[in-house]
């Protein structure tokens, strides 16, 4: 349901160009690690990914009528100010059931350059053993609409580039010590940053998101 809504909204308002979606495994657990520089990045991915995506979304977004809607389309509420064990359990449940978990590894909206990652992505990847597919969303902040300044102009082109899947721990030993998670985070950041640069070159966008 969420994917159908995302497809209708994203393709109705803008012009997504999707590259490399075939790299997302067709079945089994997978984590989509997405750069985050604009509010439409999550909905844009939901509407263009080849499989339904369950995102960890800040609890502040679950207000009023939006709360039951987000729950109904399978999105997960997370308290970013504390260790939210309920959110962790639900996210791991998505992966255990062979689903797709979407994560903004930077933790919040920013430059969208993967320059500073939180440890959550490494934890989920190591704990579940699921492969990570990097996703670069480019063009969502290139310009803004005169009618709705917080959004890109109508029919603006937004690129979504999917990278090759990889594992946070190539040896697959599953260790969850602080040292192991730190090493996994470094490896993840290197792979995500490299994918972002490749995506910029492939789309001709340079350093512009």
Task: Give an overview in words.
It is a single chain. This protein has 209 residues and is α/β, with parallel strands linked by helices. The chain has a single domain, classed as Glycerol-3-phosphate (1)-acyltransferase. Helix content is 35%, strand content 17%. It contains six helices and seven strands. The chain has helices spanning 2-13, 41-48, 66-72, 85-96, 120-128, 178-203, and strands spanning 15-19, 30-34, 53-58, 76-78, 100-103, 132-138, 157-162. Helix 1 (2-13) packs across helix 2 and helix 5 packs across helix 6 (178-203).
Helix and strand arrangement:
Layout: H1 2-13, E1 15-19, E2 30-34, H2 41-48, E3 53-58, H3 66-72, E4 76-78, H4 85-96, E5 100-103, H5 120-128, E6 132-138, E7 157-162, H6 178-203
Parallel strand pairs: 1-7, 2-5, 2-6, 3-4, 3-5
Antiparallel strand pairs: 6-7
